[in-house]
Every structure is written in C-alpha cells, then in structure tokens.
Amino acid sequence: MIINNLVNIHKAIRWMSSVLSMEIYRSGDGTFDLILLLSSNPIDNTKKMRVRFSEIKNLRLEKHIQLLYLSIKDISDRQWHRTRFEVTELEDGAISFLCYEINIEDN
Question: Rounded distance, CA 102 to CA 86, Å?
C-alpha cells in the first residue's frame, strides 16, 4: 500500500527499530529504490514490515543502523523534481535520504 499521509507512515513504522535487511534496486529508468525489512524486536523478529522507498536520492549510511527514531518529512513544497520526502534517523544519523514514494507491506 502506497502511503502519502505522514501521520499514517509514522504510525506504521513507530515501533520498527531493527533493520533486518536492506536492498537497493535500480529500475529501468535509472532510479533507485531502497527496501528495508524492519522488525520491532531484533531477537525474535515476530513483527516484520517491508518498507519500499522509491526513487531515492542522496543516500547516506553509517556502519551500524539502529532506527531509534525515523523521521519522515514532507518536502514537496520545495518543488524538487520527483522528490516528496526527506527520511532521516534522528538519534544517531544512521541513515538519511530523499525519496518520491513510500510503500509499506506487512510481512
């Protein structure tokens, strides 16, 4: 399900603090998608969620990624071509990027 409402995005990923896997795909048009498999508990992985961030730009990663608080801001008012969201992990700056679309799937 594609979600463009920030309140719903934050509700969906609120307790998902462990990154189980990270995949980057290049599409036919030359853009990149980032897929994070997230879990609420790094030990038993009972609740998992796949989040696809489409058309990512300016990806920055740290060695250790623990998502204590993933902030997603609507930056569509900046009117940048095919860029709607700024995603940043606020506690340690573990990951940050820009993207066009967010798709959340329960696993």
Answer: 11
